[in-house]
Amino acid sequence: xxxxxxxxxxxxxxxxxSCAVFFTYxxxxxxxxxxxxxxxxxxAKYSPTGDALDGVxxxxxxxxxxxxxxxxxxxxxxxxxxxxxxxxxxxxxxxxLVIAYCLYGAVHFYTAVGKGAFAAKMEMxxxxxxxxxxVPIWYIFVAQMLESIDFPLVLPVGDLSEVIRGRxxxxxxxxxxxx
Length: 179
Fold this sequence. Notes:
The protein contains seven helices and no strands. The chain is mostly helical. It has helices spanning 2-13, 16-36, 52-55, 59-83, 88-112, 116-148, 167-178. The mean pLDDT is 93.
């Protein structure tokens, strides 16, 4: 819910990129939480007996969940490309998140075809990527907290806004060169 509330705040401020990112991952966590709650009976439609717990162990459920993670990986890849104009920390976090989502998709696909031992190894790798992506996120958090109180130490996050110039920056540069 915090990410959804943050997305609303970013929307009010007019920060489209941050708003989209926060809404996407806030919705992901809400869907993830709902899928674990018996009340929503997510696996019931996949179960031959109608029992939700049996349904989450079926091939169909795992294939669908795998596709869900691959779609999340593609959306995150778009965010990664967009983040190339922000900072190194965010790019690194999104890079590892793309890998983690691909690995989680693989976990479900391998489980669907009965290769549970390999799926378990993929899940360990996905967990490692999740751990690694937390490092730059915490670094950004500390940098922003220090900045918010005007702390004398500024932590560099690796500004990329001048590395890949935006369309308006290129137009302005072209106009200056002509003048």
